[in-house]
Every structure is written in structure tokens, then in C-alpha cells.
Amino acid sequence: MNGFLNFLKPTGMTSHQGVAYFRKILGVKKVGHGGTLDPGAAGVLPICLGKGTKAAGYLLESRKVYRAEMNLGITTDTQDAYGKVLKVSSFKGITPKMVEEVIKIFKGKIIQMPPMFSAVKHKGKPLYKLARKGEVIHRKSREAFIYSIDIIDIDIPKIIFDVDCSKGTYVRTLVSDMGEKLGVGAHLSFLLRIKSGPFHINNAFTKEEVKDLFQRNQVKEFLIPLDTAFTHLPEAVIKDNALRTFINGNSQPLSSLQKYEISDKMVRVYSSSGEFLALGKWQGLYPKIELKPEKLFLNN
Questions:
Q1: Residue 14 CB coordination number (10 Å)
Q2: 131: alpha, beta or left, given left = phi > 0 and alpha = psi -120 to 50?
Q3: Is there a single domain that holds both residue 211 and residue 287?
Q4: Catalytic residue among 38, 80, 177, 227
Q5: What's the CATH code of the domain at 49?
Q6: Is this prediction's pTM over 0.90?
């Protein structure tokens, strides 16, 4: 079983528990996920199965879309509803217009300080484990990019919005920073991941649905092909006479390609029969450009 599963993770389950569940239910040894989703959050969690685990790193790079609820006036140590309340402030005087103006500030490139309650590691240990002991470690700020923020509803003290963001964006921290900018503090009271790369919540399956389909031998209903994760990339087709040398790891000249599109992006590489082989990368200068295999998904 090689490919992906678009899992609709419920609240209360860790991403690791999701991986363990499908490893057991589906009987697949190699199982991973394409981007941690907090236990208190629900939504899309791409599950990588078999050779799909080779693509986990690429899925981590994908943009994410979330629906979030910001609750003004309450600050917590985890920046969400599951933490200890640190401060309660009055939100009287905060108007929808003020909220709209502050949200605008956070579009584009932003700088975030990773929260202590996160999976970021310090000397090999996740920060959240240190935070549980009451330790506070100096963290380096990180860049993130907010492509868009669409306000769904403002009913102060609660604001619901959709955010399209880059990898590594902490929506909890985004909300906390917005609350600070408004001068009353805030925490994330609800989070739903709507989209992760090519995986959308409209096509996601619950763990019960997957188990039922698997028991009825309807694996094709939920198993997503390997190349689905890379549909945003251009494709190339290797000629039959160059297939063996390519999957053995050798770069191929343009004359060995049946179809191609040269760009600075990675390339989805297929056999002439349409089988997904690998991700490739262009190297060299024209006319001596060659396609180098970067990540093979086909056994030699």
C-alpha cells in the first residue's frame, strides 16, 4: 500500500497517535504524516503510506489553510484554550474596525517566536516537554509568510478567520500577537486545518470511514496515488531506452526525454506507460541540460 491518506483528524488525538492507528489498522509498516497538527486542533492530516513516506519532507513544505477562532481578552501559557490563564483583560472599546486594521498588519512576511509549547527541539528535547517542567528556553525568531487572511465573522470577543500560510506558521502565535497588538491579549480557541498542500478537508476521511472501507476491501476509495502530492510541479517522461539508467540514479540528457518542461522547479518524472518514477531536478546549462533523479519512488 503506497500513497497517501487524507485523514480528518479529530480533536484530542495527536498526529503520532494517528500514525500509530493507521499502522495497526492497515497493517502497513512504513507510515508517517505530512505535518504535525496539534492535539486540540482538527482537520486535514496527510498520512503517508509505504513509499509515500519518502514524500513526507516535501509535504511539510506545503502551504496550509486554517480556520481559526481568536478569543480576545484572555492570554494563556500555551496560546490556546488548553493552557493556564496568565492574564484577563477588558476588551471593551475594541471595535470590528480596529480588529480589521490589526489583521491587515499581519499579511505578508511576519516574524514569529516559536511558542514554548511546541515540537521545536532544544538540545534534542521538544520544547513542550521543557515547558511542562516550567522551563523557559531562549528561542530564535523565525520567518513565516501569510498569503491571505479572510475574516469570516466578528462577534467580539470572538473573531473567526481563514488564514493561508507558509510552512512553520504557528496560528496560536499569530493570534497571540494580534491580541497583543490590540492591547488586550488573545488566545486561539478553535483551529481547523482546511487544506494542506493538495489535500482538502472536503475529500478527507475519518478514521472510522477508513477502517470500514479497508475491511470491505475498498482501499482505492481512500488511497491517493504517490504523484498527487506533486501535481503543482511540471512533468517529464523518460524514453524506454533510458528508463533503466535513470532509475539507477543516472542523469539523463534531453535526448533521453520524451516530454519535458525546463524550469527552476522539481519535476515529476514518469515512464512512457505513465508510471510515476521519481522527482527530478534540472542541472547544467543549455544545451547540456540534464535531468537528475532526486527522489526515486520506484524500486530498482
A1: 14
A2: alpha
A3: no
A4: 38
A5: 3.30.2350.10
A6: no
Inter-residue contact 226 to 276 (CB < 8 Å): yes
Q: Which residues of 220-254 are buried (b: 16+ CB within 10 A; e: fewer)?
A: eebbbebbbbbeebebbbbeeebbeebbeeebbeb
Residues in CB range of 122: below 8 A, 6 or more apart: 130, 137, 139
Mapped onto helix, strand or coil, the DSSP state of residue 127 is: helix
Question: Are residues 204 and 57 located together in one domain of the fold?
Answer: yes
CA distance 206 to 237: 36
pLDDT tens digit string along 58-94?
887 889 999 999 999 999 999 999 989 999 999 999 9
Q: Which of 42, 44, 15, 43 is nearest to 31 (CA)?
A: 15
DSSP bridge partners of 161: 68, 151
Question: 249 and 213: one domain?
Answer: no
Is 212 tagged catalytic? no
Number of domains within the chain: 3
Q: Which residue carries 497517535 as its cell? A: 17
Its domain, for residue 34, covers: 3-61+198-226
For residue range 194-215, list pLDDT tens digits in order. 999 889 999 999 999 999 999 9
H/E element, 44: strand 42-49
Pair (81, 129) in one structural domain: yes
How many angstroms separate the CA atoms of 174 and 68, rounded?
10
> Where is the domain boundary, 176, 196, 216?
196
Q: Are residues 97 and 21 in the same domain?
A: no
> Is residue 100 located within the same domain as residue 39?
no
- The angle that helices 96-105 and 171-182 make with each other, rounded to 10 degrees, is 130
